[in-house]
Structures are given as C-alpha cells and as structure tokens.
Amino acid sequence: MTRSILTIAAAALLLAGCTSKEPGDPTAGATTSTTATKSPDKTTTTSKPASGDALADFDACAQVNAVASQLSLSRIEPSGKDECDARWGQTTTAVKVKAFPDLGISDATGGSKARISDTSIGTRKAKKVEAGVTDTSCLIAVEVGSKSRVDFYAASTTSVQESCDAATKLATAIEPKLPK
To answer: Is the residue at 121 inside a domain?
Structure first.
C-alpha cells in the first residue's frame, strides 16, 4: 500500500506540472452573468456561473463515497482542493478523482512514454492517458466544459490494463453526476 500511496503522490506532482499554460499575463474573466427581472412589486436577480465555474460545487470525495460500495472502494480521503484518493477493492490499485475547472481535456498530458487516445465516458468526450506517470498508471480525463474536466486516475503495481479498468469504471460510475 505504501508503494501505491507513493505512486499517487508522484502522479499528483507530475500531473500538476503536465498541463499546458497559455503565454501572456493573466487577466480576470467574468465569473457570473447576472440577470435582473423587474415586475411591478419586486425585482428578481439571478446569477448563473460562467463555464469555468461549472465545477464550483463539485465535491470529489462526496462522489467517490456515493459509488464506494458499488466499486468496493475504501480508505477514501481528501487529498487537496477538489480531489480525493481511495483504494480500489482488495488490490494494490490506488485511485484519484480531481476536478480541473480551468483545464480542458486537450490539456491532459503525460510523460514521454504516455499513450494518449480519444475515448468517451457516457455521453462525454474524454482522453485516455496510458502510462502517463508510471508504466502502470492510467488517466481518464472527462470533459465537463470546453475548458474544464474531471480526471480519474489509477495507479496499479501490476499492469496499465488494471489501472485503466479501474479509472474507466470509476469515471463511468461518477460521470452521470458531473455538471452539464
């Protein structure tokens, strides 16, 4: 299990560094659009999150807990902002769910040995990154918006196929709960 935890920690560091960055200076963008409706007796104002905020209310650990019994997940723990780690059944496979509100699936990358392919999870576009961090790791990046995604990462001590099976099953179980 220690090896799995170290693999997840290494993967998190690598994934954090393996996203493309846009050149230039950062500028603030719109975070909400507001609509005011006026009637004779009252004014109603509604706010709608901008596309990058679609994941503002996404709770990775709540979603992992919701499918834990279905997938035999254990040792479910938050591991940072918008992310959650768990153990996959009685295996040495560790899984992670992490929201990226400002990165699309095209930003999902891996190391020099990574094999990247297009796929789908439910009705959503996704990227599959095999051996992106280690020889036996797998990432399924599921599109939420054009510039947002949720990653389902798995690391096994046995094979990339075992990792991809776990990541795909976890993504498939949680995908219906992702924001539209």
So the answer is: yes
State the pLDDT at residue 116. 97
The token pair that represents 20 in the structure block: 């493309």
SS3 of 95-117: the string is EEEEEECCCCHHHCCCCCCCEEE
Domain that holds residue 163: 2-13+73-177
DSSP secondary-structure letter at 51? G
* Per-residue tokens: 38: 């006026």
Q: Is the pLDDT of residue 137 over 70?
A: yes
Structure tokens at 43: 């004014």
User: Rounded to an integer, what distance in angstroms lies between the CA atom of residue 165 and that of residue 132?
Assistant: 15
pLDDT digits (tens, 9 = 90+) for 150-159: 999 999 999 9
What's the distance, Cα to Cα, between the start and end of the chain in Å? 35
Reading the block at residue 161, the tokens are 């196929």
Q: Can you list the positions of beta strands (E) in 103-172?
A: 115-121, 124-130, 137-145, 148-155
**CATH number of the domain where residue 86 is located:** 3.40.1000
- How confident is the model at residue 81, as a pLDDT? 84
**What mean pLDDT value characterizes the chain?**
80
Q: Is residue 50 part of a domain?
A: no
